[in-house]
Every structure is written in structure tokens, then in C-alpha cells.
Specification:
8 helices, 168 residues, Glycolipid transfer protein, GLTP, mainly alpha
């Protein structure tokens, strides 16, 4: 939040990042969009070739992060919902229910093969939260899941409204 002191929520930061970068697609100039000489975006918009290499379009980066957060949301929900199921099955179900649709056939099969190698639930618990008992683990998941699901839903809604859901 230090980068954007005027932003009071993650949603506002996402919107700010996207708005600062969408104009690049239409060739906007730096000062028109509030950038001053010396800002990385100003250089890019002014046509400095070297800045194109280091330029990251925030909208695409956030979309990739959104794919991951969507998968994570499904994974945490399914871990809670199916306490006796193998983690590999939970990971596979979570992938299929969340982001499989965004991948090509070859990538889907590679990901499915990789998901068969996920650690056990106990290893996952230990790696994520250290030495906690099962009840504490599920309590932590419950406390994470609702705000995470809310954030993911809001960002997806924003991306759909702005027609930003494609990486093409």
C-alpha cells in the first residue's frame, strides 16, 4: 500500500495498476496519463526501446496471479470439504474446477501428471503452517478462505467487466 497511499484496499490497488497500464495498448503518452519524465512508464510511452524489455503489463500479470488465486481458493475449499480424500485427488479436482479451461490440451495433461505428485495432507499442513494439529489447520483454512474467495470473485468481476480475461 506504500506505493499507492491513496488506495485503501487490495481492490483499489488492482484497479490502479490496471488503469496505469491499459493505455499502453493504445499508445498513450506519459504526461497525459499522469507520469512524469523519469518514471519507467513515461520512458516506455515515449518510445525508449530498452524500457520495452523490462516493462511488465500489470493487467496480464494480475490475471496470471488471479489464475493462481482461483486454483488456491478451490484447493483450500476442497481440503476442508474432503478431509479424508488424497491430496493428489483434491489437487486434481481443484484444477479441473478452476483453471483447467484456460490451458491447452498438452499443458492440461502435463499439469494433471504433476498434480499426482503433490505431498500428503500432513506434509502440506506442515509446509504451510508448521507443526499444527488438524483442528488448528482447519481453523486457519476457514479464516483464509472467505476473504480469499471474496477477493478472487471481485477481481474476476472487474476483469470480466473490463474484458481483460484473455492473455492474448
Amino acid at each position: 500500500m506504500v506505493r499507492y497511499p491513496d488506495c485503501k484496499s487490495v481492490q483499489q490497488i488492482v484497479e490502479k495498476e490496471i488503469s496505469l497500464n491499459l493505455h499502453v495498448l493504445s499508445g498513450g503518452n506519459g504526461e497525459k496519463y499522469g507520469h512524469k519524465p523519469g518514471d519507467p512508464l513515461y520512458k516506455y510511452e515515449s518510445g525508449t526501446p530498452s524500457s520495452k524489455i523490462t516493462r511488465i503489463l500489470a493487467a496480464r500479470t494480475i490475471l496470471r496471479l488471479l489464475y493462481f488465486l482461483t486454483l488456491l481458493t478451490h484447493l483450500l475449499k476442497n481440503i476442508r470439504q474432503y478431509p479424508e480424500e488424497l491430496m493428489s485427488n483434491i489437487a486434481l479436482k481443484s484444477y479441473k474446477d478452476s483453471i483447467e479451461q484456460f490451458h491447452t490440451g498438452v499443458l492440461r495433461e502435463a499439469i494433471k501428471a504433476a498434480l499426482m505428485t503433490v505431498p500428503t495432507r500432513e506434509e502440506f499442513m506442515k509446509n504451510m503452517f508448521g507443526a499444527v494439529d488438524k483442528k488448528a489447520f482447519y481453523d486457519i483454512l476457514a479464516s483464509i478462505l472467505k476473504p480469499l474467495a471474496t477477493l478472487v470473485a471481485r477481481v474476476w468481476k472487474y476483469y470480466q467487466e473490463k474484458k481483460l480475461t484473455s492473455l492474448e
